[in-house]
Every structure is written in structure tokens, then in C-alpha cells.
Design brief:
single chain; Immunoglobulin-like; 8-stranded parallel barrel; binds alpha-L-arabinofuranose; Jelly Rolls; TIM Barrel; 3 domains
Length: about 650
């Protein structure tokens, strides 16, 4: 453990002032001192420290970031996803003006074997209108004048049939947009067109009508806003993706979380099921009790990483499913782990190697060719690979992890393999995970912890004592959980204080990501999350502002510094900028004297961003300037994070 705060000052403060719950003092018997030599060489740290962790939890992907507006487009929902659901969940039969018909689900001549079910709409008489309608994921929000791309795979099964008519309607039945498509033929054919609504509505419905008596098969009924993030087809919701991009994450860990190791061996996230044409992907049950369309799959994840300048950190199952699998049905909580049979492990290990080829292999390699066929002949530049997610560290886990680890490091020494040390910052899984990491010399291990704010304040020296000769650390999931898991500034400041400690130790803690990232308001399975959203809005939390303030001012050199408050100072060698981050988690303002040796080599006006309680609403970062040519006094407001940016 390396003390960072001057011992004499600490001793004095302990005598003069009572400690608050966060371990900081509230006394103001004279300014505290913040001192740093800005000209020092400093310590190299990871430039990748600040990243994000994305998992399809809380409708983060389907119904969230993935811009598809139609729920259950492929008629693959079932009661395995959620009790009461079936292949027609989300859909209703439409019979208007005397029209009579029925809708059933069939599977005898599917569009693709991975996508077995489809709807068959039977139009019984030649009157009125018969069709199906869909109200989207918790509503279907459309905006006046925007273009929406509709598409459907259709096949006339019996009867003469007729053209398909596609409508966007308001809940009150007003027509918002109309599109007429050719009559389907006897073979599966993709039909598509544009809808441009004449009003902005949050509860629209998409209606597909068939004109003409007969039976028509429909599958992959899809509606996308044309204006996706970076204009990608099969793309991402622009406002949500932008909120993520604004974090300037240096990496993205995906696709989970518990979602990766899955609710049983048959529910593991298998990356090859998620690439290629979307109608050929094998969608499946989501461990968080809904359905994964897998429209946001590995290609889209890699592409998103590239679009936002972040390194991909995919996680594959370590050959075992989640220890909590099937917990509510047959097994005891924590005892549901099962391993892929050992005779199947060579094939599974090959599958992991194939992922590396899909990401990095030449366009004429087997898996590189699949990437190229999807429109990306250049490699994605994969550097990191997570193997396992906070697994129970059992002999079964160890045997399978070892096989995968050894195969990947032998074939791809350039890839940093990230192992796992369980779901907690200590305890048997943590100890065992580290034992294996030490034995195998795993390049990096993934630690997880969700703890109360005080835990973070109390552990500000955790990594000071980590052995630098051992595996590096990825803090893959962490968050301060305040009372009733509310998203408070107090929790955000505990995270901020901890981030100053992570930056100081970013020679060994090389990656860190808050968890989870996204939560759909009214439809969460986990709280708190970094970003909340509805179908129309994005709402940012105090923790989001903290993450953004740190990530937007990251560096690759740590400068030794002293302060009574949690502080970190980093330099970005590229721009030469220096960033001071200071956390006052107490409930009193704190006067400080900034002793910044060498400040003269910087522009005298420093930009300051402060996140603190606001009289007129939720805490938001506010900007000001600090004149470095004055004797520098700075008052850190009560309950605040301050970032001071020094530029050349
Ligand atoms: O981040 C939410 C969940 O927390 C993750 O899926 C899992 O890894 C952890 O238990």
C-alpha cells in the first residue's frame, strides 16, 4: 500500500475535523494544498482505461440501441422467452369493413432453417381489409417527415392473392403513411419501400394488409428509421448511439455479462449465430427474460466500435454456462453451471479461434471472407478477447478455460486474453480465479464489483499494492449502489473518487467499465444504469457525467500529485494537455491552494468543468475558466467533481 496524501496533513485533519461517511473531512481551517509538478516525467499508464460495457439487458439492444422498430419481426418469440409469450406476441389480426381472415404460425417451408417460424395470413372474403398489425417495443415512435424503411419477406401460399398495403397509423386510427407493394409470388421474396409519416406519434402501429383472397406467408416484417447512427443499414438508434459516442470510450466490452455464458448450455451466446444476413441468424431466448433477435450481432458490434473509435473487447463463454442458470426452475442459485462436454471442447475452442479470424483474418480466409461479404474487407483490429464472465471458478471451469486460453495464446500471441475472477472483489471465486491467472500467466483478468458508495471511498488504495509482475486488471463491471439502488450524485462521486485511484494505478488496471450501460425506463431488470431512455428520449445520470468527464480527459502519463481530497493528474502526450480531476465528496465547500509547478508553460486560461448539485435541476457539468497567472485559489464545491484542463 503506497500512501499518496501527506501524512502530516492527514494526521492534522484527523485531529481537527470529524470524518464523514465517505472518509473525507469537512473542516475548512485554511486552504488545503493541491500540489503537482507539471514538468515531471510521470508514469506511463494505459491510454485505454476508460471504456464501456454493453449488454442486451433492460432492452438495451432489442427495443433500444438496435434501431428495429418491429417487435418479434421473425415470429420466433415463445414461452421459453417469457411465460405467456408465443410466436404471435406483438401481433394482432386486423379485420376491417367486413373483411374476414385469420393469422396462424407455420414452420413447414421457412425462409431459412435458423428462422423456422413465419406468419400465414388467410384472407377469407374479398371485402374490406385483412392484415396484421404491430405496436413496436413498448410503443412505436415515429417522427413527422422522417423516412422509414419497411421490408418484408412474403410468399403466396394459396389463392390468387393481391398486392400488399402497408400503413403507419396513429392509435386513434389516423393514417400517417401508406405504401403499396407488388403481389407476392409463390417463392419467398423480399419486398420493401419507404414510409414517411405526416405526424409525430409515440404510439403508432404498423399495419400490413393483403388485398385478395388466399393465404400469404410473411416473415421478417421490419421497419427501420433511415437515419441511423452513421447511416448504417440494419443500424443503431442515432440519439442513443451518440450518447455513447460522446463518452469517447476507448473500448467496448460486449455482448455481456450473463448474456454471454447464458441460461444453460443451449443458451450460450455463440458468435457465429449472429453474423450474415439477419434473416439467417438464429435468434434466441435472452437470459434477462425476453428475446434476442441478434440483429445487433458481432459484425454490427465491431462496426459500432470502429464508428466511435473504440477498441472491441468481445467476451466468449469459457465453455461453461452461468452458475445461476435455471436457478428459478430446477437448480439452486449458484449451482447451475454446466460444462460443454469435453469431447466437444476442441470444436468449441476452434469456434473461438474462428472469431479472431472473423475479426482480423485476411478477406480471403474462411471467416475473413464472411466479414468481407458483409461489407468490411479490412480487418477490425481485434486486440483483446474476454474468456468467461464472472464464472464460478470450479474444476470444470478451470479445465475448459485452460484449453481455450492455451489454444488462443499459442495461435495468437498478439491477442490479450482476459480471464475472469468471479463476481466479487474478494472471496473464493476471486482467490481461485487469481490462482489460475497466476499459474497460467493470463495476460489480464476481469474483476467485477457492485458495492455501496462507502465501499469505494474505503478502498481507494486497493490497487496500490497489486503486484505489477502478475496479470493486469480489467475492472469490467463496477458501480456504486446507493440506497434502493437510486442513481444519485453521491454514488457518482464515489465512482469519481475511485476513478482517480484507477488512473493512479492505470499501469496495472488497464481497462475499466461502469455497468450496466443502458436501461429502458419502465422495462429494466437491473438498476442503476449509466443511461436511461424511452422510445423518444435519452436521459443521462450523474454517473454518466462522471464517466464522460474522465474519459474525455484521459491521458497516457500519470503525474504524481498530493492533495487531501481524491485527485488524479494525467497528461496526454499527444496533445500535451494536462488534466486535474478532483473530488470533494464531503458536504462542505473546500478552499484549496493549487501549487502547479511549471504552469507557465501552459495557456494562462484553464478550462474548468464542475459537476455539483444544481439549484435548478439535476446535476449537470458546468464550464468556467481559471486564470493560472493569479495565485491560484480554487474552492471545490461541496459534493463535486472538478476537472481542470491545462492546454499548451
Ligand atoms: O451488469 C449486469 C450483470 O451483472 C452482468 O450481466 C453480470 O456479469 C453481472 O452479474
Amino acid at each position: 500500500m503506497t500512501p499518496r496524501y501527506p501524512l502530516l496533513l492527514l494526521a492534522l485533519l484527523t485531529i481537527l475535523a470529524p470524518a464523514t461517511a465517505s472518509g473525507q473531512t469537512t473542516a475548512d481551517d485554511g486552504p488545503g494544498v493541491v500540489s503537482v509538478d507539471l514538468g515531471q516525467e510521470g508514469k506511463p499508464i494505459s491510454a485505454d482505461l476508460h471504456g464501456i460495457f454493453f449488454e442486451d439487458l433492460n432492452f438495451a439492444a432489442d427495443g433500444g440501441l438496435y434501431a428495429e422498430l418491429v417487435e418479434n419481426r421473425s415470429f420466433e418469440f415463445s414461452s421459453a422467452d417469457r411465460r405467456g409469450w408465443d410466436a404471435l406476441t406483438g401481433w394482432k389480426l386486423v379485420e376491417r369493413d367486413g373483411g374476414r381472415g385469420e393469422v396462424v404460425v407455420e414452420a413447414n417451408q421457412p425462409l431459412h432453417s435458423n428462422n423456422p417460424h413465419y406468419a400465414v395470413l388467410g384472407v377469407v372474403n374479398g371485402e374490406g381489409e385483412v392484415g396484421v398489425e404491430n405496436g413496436g417495443y413498448h410503443g412505436l415512435a415515429v417522427t413527422e417527415g422522417d423516412a422509414y424503411d419497411f421490408s418484408v419477406f412474403a410468399r403466396q401460399v394459396a389463392g390468387a392473392g393481391g398486392p400488399l398495403v402497408v400503413l403507419l397509423e396513429s392509435a386513434a386510427g389516423d393514417e400517417l403513411a401508406r405504401l403499396e407493394l407488388a403481389a407476392p409470388s409463390g417463392a419467398w421474396t423480399k419486398l420493401s419501400g419507404e414510409l414517411a409519416p405526416n405526424a409525430t406519434v409515440d404510439d403508432a402501429r404498423l399495419v400490413v394488409l393483403s388485398r385478395g383472397v388466399g393465404r400469404v406467408a410473411l416473415d421478417m416484417i421490419s421497419l427501420f428509421p433511415r437515419d441511423t447512427f452513421h447511416g448504417r443499414k440494419n443500424g443503431l438508434r442515432k440519439d442513443l448511439a451518440q450518447a455513447i459516442a460522446d463518452l469517447e470510450p476507448k473500448f467496448v466490452r460486449f455482448p455481456g455479462g450473463c448474456l454471454v455464458h447464458g441460461d444453460g448450455l443451449d443458451n450460450m451466446y455463440r458468435w457465429q449465430d449472429t453474423i450474415g444476413p439477419v434473416h439467417e441468424r438464429r435468434s434466441q431466448r435472452n437470459i434477462w427474460r425476453y428475446h434476442q433477435s441478434l440483429g445487433l450481432g458481432y459484425f454490427e458490434y465491431f462496426q459500432f466500435c470502429e464508428d466511435i473509435g473504440a477498441k472491441p473487447v468481445p467476451v466468449v463463454p469459457a465453455g461453461v454456462c452461468c452458475q445461476n442458470a435455471g436457478a428459478s426452475v430446477t437448480r439452486k442459485w449458484g449451482q447451475g453451471q454446466r460444462g460443454i462436454p469435453l469431447d466437444e471442447m476442441p470444436a468449441y475452442t476452434e469456434e473461438v479461434l474462428d472469431l479472431i479470424e472473423f475479426a482480423n483474418g485476411p478477406a480471403d480466409s474462411r471467416w475473413g471472407a464472411k466479414r468481407a461479404a458483409m461489407g468490411h474487407p479490412e480487418p477490425f483490429g481485434l486486440e483483446y478477447l474476454g474468456v468467461g464472465n464472472e464464472d464460478h471458478i470450479t474444476p470444470e471451469f478451470e479445465e475448459r478455460f485452460r484449453q481455450i486460453h492455451d489454444a488462443v495464446t499459442a495461435a495468437h500471441p498478439e491477442i490479450v486474453v482476459i480471464g475472469t475472477v468471479g463476481p466479487a472483489p474478494d472471496g473464493p471465486d476471486y482467490e481461485e480465479g487469481w490462482r489460475i491467472a497466476n499459474q497460467l500467466k493470463v495476460a489480464m483478468v476481469d474483476e467485477h464489483y457492485y458495492r455501496p458508495p462507502n465501499w469505494f471511498h474505503d478502498n481507494l488504495q486497493r490497487y496500490d499494492s497489486y503486484d505489477r509482475a502478475r496479470s493486469a486488471v480489467y475492472l469490467g463491471e463496477y458501480a456504486a449502489h446507493d440506497d434502493r439502488r437510486r442513481r444519485t450524485l453521491r454514488a457518482a462521486l464515489a465512482e469519481a473518487a475511485y476513478l482517480t485511484h484507477l488512473e493512479r494505478n492505470a499501469d496495472i488496471v488497464r481497462l475499466a467499465s461502469y455497468a450496466p450501460l443502458l436501461g429502458k425506463i419502465g422495462h429494466t431488470q437491473w438498476d442503476p444504469n449509466l443511461i436511461y431512455f424511452t422510445n423518444r428520449e435519452v436521459r443521462l445520470t450523474p454517473s454518466y457525467h462522471v464517466q464522460r468527464m474522465f474519459s474525455n480527459t484521459s491521458g497516457d502519463i500519470y503525474l504524481a500529485c498530493e492533495s487531501e481530497l481524491p485527485l488524479s493528474v494525467v497528461r496526454d502526450s499527444g496533445s500535451g494537455q494536462v488534466f486535474l480531476k478532483l473530488v470533494n465528496a464531503t458536504d462542505a465547500d473546500r478552499r484549496l491552494s493549487l501549487e502547479l509547478a511549471g504552469w507557465e508553460t501552459f495557456a494562462s486560461a484553464a478550462r474548468v468543468k464542475t459537476l455539483a448539485p444544481a439549484a435548478d435541476g439535476p446535476p449537470l457539468p458546468r464550464e468556467s475558466t481559471l486564470d493560472l497567472s493569479d495565485a491560484i485559489d480554487y474552492t471545490a464545491p461541496a459534493s463535486s467533481l472538478t476537472v481542470i484542463e491545462l492546454s499548451r
